[in-house]
Amino acid sequence: MLKKTPSGAPSTDEEVLDRLALDYPLPRLILDYRGLAKLKGTYTDKLPRMVDAKTGRVHTRYLQATAVTGRLASSDPNLQNIPVRTAEGRRIRACFVAPPGHALVSADYSQIELRIMAHLSRDAGLARAFAAGEDIHRATAAEVFGVEPAAVTAEQRRYAKVINFGLIYGMSAFGLARELGIERAAAQGFIDRYFARYPGVARFMEETRETARERGYVETLFGRRMWATDIRSGNAARRAGAERAAINAPMQGSAADLIKRAMIALARWLDEERLAAKLILQVHDELVLEVPERELERVRGRLPELMCGAAELAVPLVADVGVGANWDEAH
DNA sequence: TTTAATGGCGCG
DNA sequence: AAAGCGCGCCATTAAA
Question: What is the rounded CA–CA span in Å between residue A248 and residue A64?
Fold first, then answer.
């Protein structure tokens, strides 16, 4: 048995079956089946049944007071988890199409949570890398491995990417080791080197833990509070979980604030300019609009500017924009 | 038929 | 003792 579920039963999740697939043929078949069954059961079978008879469209609900970090949540159906990571999944995404005479325009923030971390921590090295427009995972790899950015290998960049994401989530050396398939001591070494190179980030992490412990809450960029329940729990595991949530909350929560400001700015602009383009989806760091052909160039130009102008941070904001006949093409 | 718990997995 | 944040929804199982 490689892993247990919270209730103590043997786990058969993807991580476990992936490892078993190295020694046996069956686990891979189960994983393939599960992947296809997920797509069929959640999307292919369900979404066509949810088309509204009046409009001929699928309409999601956006829950504004559900996620503790201030994100929106989408339900009935959830349109914030439409597949994108596999070729089969993207065929489902491609089913979201613009009407005749229109196109879909999608814009998403680049590395928004890491940029917010750079802003909140005021770390000089991280801010410099973003200001220079560097590939942030490559830049991190160069720092951690002590080589020139141009000399970073694909594996070193992959390691740095896992480290960068792990930081946002409060990952430990244990988790990093498991994710990278390396010894825990080696993982701890990478973390130590990261914090030595980005001392502002180390300070920010520690200050966030202290703030959560002393005040019982942490705040976003715009002062919205998120309560850190369990932060003083006598149960060490609960306390550690609360600390990870408190580390993540300012970044995820500030990103949520930013895109909401962008949505408000967008609504005002569309109104002022008398444009027929419509905002139809928000997916945490992405906005999707349905745009008449004649408005395409204006929207494509202005949308990323509005998103990047949602706040003045210590680092530049970047939004990538795409256009297409369907959501997969636009993404 | 509905509700709840569980394990799992789609997304950012 | 656990080990990576935030969601919603699926199938399965058991019980109301």
Answer: 19
